[in-house]
Amino acid sequence: MTKDAKQVFNCNTLLHFWNAKMEQNLPFDLDALLIFSKVVECRSLSKAATLLAMPKSTVSRKLSKLEADLGIKLLRKNTHQLTVTDLGEKIYGHSVNILAEANGVRALVEGSRQEPQGELRVAIPVFVGIDYASRVGATFLARHPNSRLDIRLVDDVVHPIKDGFDVVFGTGPLQDSMLIARKVFSLEMFLCASPFFVGQLAEPITAPAQLNALPFIDCGFYSGPKKLVVGRQKRRYELSPVVRARTNNFQVCKQYILRGLGVGAMPNQIIVTDELREGSIVPVLPGWSLDRLDVYMIHPFQLSFSTLISAFYEAACEIIVENSARS
């Protein structure tokens, strides 16, 4: 079966699955909501119709009926472009969650019938850490003896289709509409330093503005569009510290911090649990918090029902829960 044929098969299978397995007590057609989500992702009725193996007229009719049922305008169409209304964007967010849940239900059902087998190629960013990647891999392989696993630690953003992977881990938005993202965990980031560094300061750190005059160890996430922002209740403060060192690996950042080279932002679940317990790393501005860093498992839509991917996702979530308990 070709990739396009598999894409169409899985889209239709998902729609039929929802119709057959769910009782819809809703004021609108759930199929139409899923069709709407594909139109938003493709930004084209024609492309969405091709993906869903439906006539364009059917897609258009379904969308019109959905708008009528909801009593709102979801899309604005003219001869040159298709745009989504503000409320349509919010509804699209819900439709994506519904799609992910449907994929999860189907994968759960299929997984109960078939033991995962075959090879899974996975790309995990180095910032996630060797310890986490190795524990997930070992758990997955021990649990599924008919599986094979190829994990690559990568420095740069990779694309699951173009770069030949079944699964990649990432933090940013989806790179195209043919991908599915499932959140694995959220890293609770916090500011920290070594007791030696803090002890050498002329005065205690009690306000965010003080950090702008101190050397900062950047783990690679706080440059470009993502800013270093701390919050307390409803207050938000954007920091502009002097970057003394930057790397894309938390283990390297931790060593810099332990050596007293500056203040850094670290996740306590997978990197500095022991150091916090021992006191070799201490929180800075504990009353202020950083935004969480969401990590997703991303894979092509046509692999949505893969038992291998579902099994790996289960192992990935299980290990982070264990790490959080340890912390």
Automatic annotation (TrEMBL):
What is one Gene Ontology biological process annotated in the Swiss-Prot or TrEMBL record? DNA-templated transcription
PROSITE patterns membership: HTH_LYSR
Q: Which family does it belong to?
A: Belongs to the LysR transcriptional regulatory family.
Under what name is this protein listed?
A: LysR family transcriptional regulator
Q: Which InterPro entries match?
A: LysR-type_TF_proteobact-type, LysR_HTH_N, LysR_subst-bd, WH-like_DNA-bd_sf, WH_DNA-bd_sf
For this chain, one GO molecular function annotation is:
DNA-binding transcription factor activity
Question: Which SUPFAM superfamilies does the annotation name?
Answer: Periplasmic binding protein-like II, Winged helix' DNA-binding domain
Keywords, alphabetical: DNA-binding, Transcription, Transcription regulation
What positions does the domain HTH lysR-type occupy? 28-85
